[in-house]
């Protein structure tokens, strides 16, 4: 596959206020995440390392609904979901409805690498974290009061994600979220589900999705993009077609980022905005919303 590398990240498709300082902060966080991933890839790092590193930075950003800044549920607890997937092997790891974890994406990777399972939830996932000595935090460390009241945050949450292609031709995806604002305890959206919140296959593409999870699940949107790529569509056309399908079949809103096996990127959304940033090779970071 040669030495073509690419990384693209998003900060969630939602009802962003286009004039808000929060959106500016989100775009800046996306730039920093894409840059960190690019530097890692340029140094010969793996796509898996790049997407995990990028998403950790997004989880640390207090204006994004993942890790710190996640929306509380109806009980005032923060329950988070995350998925990571390796396009080379199709291995994946995910956690759902986990509490008191600052970096859910890193716990998802440990599930992939250190268990025979693909998805651990709730108390079981937290017990696994404690068993492997994975750092825990307090709920107060994750709560950002203005996120609960921000008028520029959509009701569906603002998932974060990253997709990458490394120099060896491997693709990977990472997706993380705090989920829907004031959701029922135990609610799990599309983000930790293979094929919905993300999908990566070296034969086609890596995709991370964001939006109204219950509706994204209905069309298995990330796998749908990969299938469109397999049928001959470009990364951009495949992303746009999947968003159109989402709207037609479910009336849903969301967004997608895609990188195919040739390093071509796709960005599509039908919401007010979706902060994103990407880089191709050693090129400069391109951002947008």
How is this structure best described in words?
- By secondary structure, the protein is an alpha+beta fold.
- It has a domain at 6-207.
- It has 9 helices and 12 strands.
- Strands 4-3-2-6-5-1-11-12 form an 8-stranded mixed β-sheet.
- It is globular and about 45 Å long.
- The two termini are 30 Å apart.
Outline of this structure?
The chain is an alpha+beta fold.
Strand adjacency order, main sheet: 4-3-2-6-5-1-11-12
- Main pleated sheet: 8 strands, mixed
Number of helices: 9
Number of strands: 12
Order of helix and strand elements from N to C terminus: EHHEEHEHHHEEEEHHHEEEE
Assign a percent range to the helix content: 25-40%
Q: Strand-residue fraction? A: 15-25%
Query: Structural class from helices and strands?
Result: alpha+beta
3D shape: globular
Q: What are the low-pLDDT stretches, counting only 5+ consecutive residues below 50?
A: none
Could you report the average pLDDT, rounded to the nearest whole number?
A: 94
Q: What does the radius of gyration come to?
A: 17 Å
User: Span from first to last CA?
Assistant: 30 Å
């Amino acid at each position: 596959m040669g030495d073509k590398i690419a990384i693209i990240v998003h900060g969630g498709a939602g009802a962003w206020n286009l004039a808000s300082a929060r959106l500016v902060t989100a775009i800046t966080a996306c730039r920093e995440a894409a840059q960190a991933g690019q530097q890692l890839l340029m140094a010969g790092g793996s796509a898996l390392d790049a997407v995990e590193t990028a998403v950790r930075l997004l989880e640390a950003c207090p204006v994004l609904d993942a890790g710190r800044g996640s929306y509380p549920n109806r009980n005032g607890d923060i329950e988070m979901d995350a998925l990571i997937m390796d396009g080379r092997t199709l291995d994946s790891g995910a956690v759902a409805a986990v509490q008191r974890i600052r970096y859910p994406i890193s716990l998802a990777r440990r599930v992939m690498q250190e268990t025979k399972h693909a998805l651990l939830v709730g108390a079981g996932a937290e017990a696994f974290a404690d068993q492997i000595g994975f750092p825990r935090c307090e709920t107060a460390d994750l709560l950002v009061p203005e996120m609960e009241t921000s008028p520029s945050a959509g009701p569906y949450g603002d998932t974060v994600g990253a997709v990458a292609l490394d120099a060896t031709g491997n693709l990977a995806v990472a997706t993380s979220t705090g989920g829907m604002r004031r959701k029922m305890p135990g609610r799990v959206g599309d983000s930790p589900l293979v094929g919905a919140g993300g999908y990566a296959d070296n034969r086609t593409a890596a995709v991370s999705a964001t939006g109204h999870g219950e509706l994204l699940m209905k069309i298995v949107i990330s796998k749908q993009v990969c299938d469109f790529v397999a049928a001959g569509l470009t990364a951009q056309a495949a992303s746009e077609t999947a968003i159109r399908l989402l709207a037609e079949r479910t009336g849903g809103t969301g967004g997608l980022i895609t990188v195919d096996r040739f390093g071509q990127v796709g960005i599509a959304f039908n919401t007010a905005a979706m902060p994103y940033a990407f880089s191709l090779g050693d090129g400069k970071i391109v951002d947008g919303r």
